[in-house]
Design a protein that fits this description.
The protein is an alpha/beta fold. The chain has two domains: about 1-90 and about 245-335, Isopropylmalate Dehydrogenase (3-Layer(aba) Sandwich), CATH 3.40.718; about 105-240, Isopropylmalate Dehydrogenase, CATH 3.40.718.10. The protein is about 40% helix and about 20% strand. It has eleven helices and twelve strands. It has helices at about 15-30, 40-45, 55-60, 80-90, 145-165, 180-195, 205-215, 225-240, 280-290, 295-310, 325-330; strands spanning about 5-10, 30-35, 65, 95-100, 115-120, 125-130, 140-145, 170-175, 200-205, 220-225, 250, 255-260. The strands form two sheets. Strands 2-1-3-12-11-4-5-10-8-9 form a ten-stranded mixed β-sheet, with helices on both faces. The protein is globular, with a radius of gyration of 20 Å. It starts with a strand and ends with a helix. It comes from Lysobacter defluvii IMMIB APB-9 = DSM 18482. Its EC number is 1.1.1.41. It holds the Pfam family Iso_dh.
């Protein structure tokens, strides 16, 4: 049986890391067909739109997309293409794993294995009621947190912990100060936690959580939190393992899911074959898990680890002198 996925090659280094990722996926022979679609600057140049209707239709039809980084030009129709995609498809859970890998520029040689589950559709990033006073002296933006949004992302985190054999979920909040918004999130997440007696649940104030992550990341397993806090914490976790070049992201909704590298388009090295494809490859691993192909996802992750251990064709950011596609070929040879 084959599965068709929407493939968005992206901007900057996007096409290079996507070609590398598809090379490895083809080597896995998991029965994927690719439907290519445009977004970002490439789409703007072709169609005059950052997110063409044909691309949205493709994602709706296939329900799974693999996406390289995109550029939202200044003056675009919306503040962020990624935020718009999350809104359009109600991709309510952003899932960012951070795991120690060998031979990387990390402060921790091992022991980091954390998944951040971030509410993806509301909170501070919903940007409701944004306005700046005429004299520029005051700016206002409304942050909205709902019971529905809090409940479904908390449940996703606990279900993820249960299905992957993880033992603990930490609810991260600022309910001591933000008693309405963060308070509601904490209250609802605690209610959900009570339905999962097999999973240890704790809650932690966000500033303390950040400190504890830096000091003893091994104490954490799954983190669940609101949109803004999750954005910050997931990047902090990326820093613990050597940077965004090793950090994938999944955006999960009821009717669609988009998997991606969470780093930017890196236009300064675009077209030079220097980009590390690991983040997008790991995002493809998340996609395989989502498609029920967990065995192949583990083959992919195992091949990445083996290639890092062998220091085979590593890109410059990992201390090697290999190229993007050379690194991908080394990984493909081990799947």
């Amino acid at each position: 049986m084959t599965q068709t996925i929407t493939v968005i090659r992206g901007d900057g280094i996007g096409p290079e890391i996507m070609d590398a990722t598809l090379h490895v996926l083809d080597a896995l022979q998991v029965g994927l067909d690719y439907e290519f679609a445009d977004a970002g600057v490439v789409a703007l140049e072709k169609t005059g739109e950052l997110l063409p209707a044909a691309t949205l239709d493709s994602i709706s039809r296939n329900r799974v997309a693999l996406k390289s980084p995109l550029t939202t030009p200044v003056g675009g129709g919306f503040s962020s293409i990624n935020v718009e995609l999350r809104r359009r498809f109600d991709l309510y859970a952003n899932v960012r794993p951070a795991r120690s890998y060998p031979n990387t520029k990390s402060r921790f040689e091992s022991g980091v294995d954390v998944i951040t589950v971030r509410e993806n559709t509301e909170g501070a990033y919903s940007a409701e009621g944004q306005e700046v006073s005429e004299d520029g002296s005051k700016a206002v933006s409304i942050a909205t947190v709902t019971r529905k949004g809090s409940e479904r992302v908390a449940r996703y985190a606990f279900e993820l912990a249960r299905s992957t054999g993880r033992k603990k979920v930490t609810i991260v909040h600022k309910a001591n100060i933000l008693k309405s918004t963060s308070g509601l999130f904490l209250k609802v997440a605690r209610e959900v936690a009570a339905e999962y007696p097999d999973i240890e649940a704790q809650d932690m104030i966000v500033d303390n959580c950040c400190m504890q992550l830096v000091m003893r990341p091994e104490q954490f397993d799954v983190l669940v939190t609101t949109n803004l806090f999750g954005d910050i914490i997931s990047d902090l976790c990326a820093g613990l393992i050597g940077g965004l070049g090793l950090t994938p992201g999944a955006n999960i909704g009821k009717d669609a899911a988009i998997f991606e590298a969470v780093h930017g388009t890196a236009p300064d090295i675009a077209g030079q074959g220097k980009a590390n494809p690991c983040a997008l490859l790991l995002g493809a691993g998340q996609m395989l898990d989502h498609l029920g192909l967990a065995e192949h996802a583990e083959r992919l992750r195992g091949a990445i680890v083996a290639t890092l251990e062998a220091r085979d064709s590593l890109t410059g950011d990992l201390g090697g002198s290999g190229t993007t596609m050379g690194f991908a070929r080394a990984i493909a040879s081990r799947v």
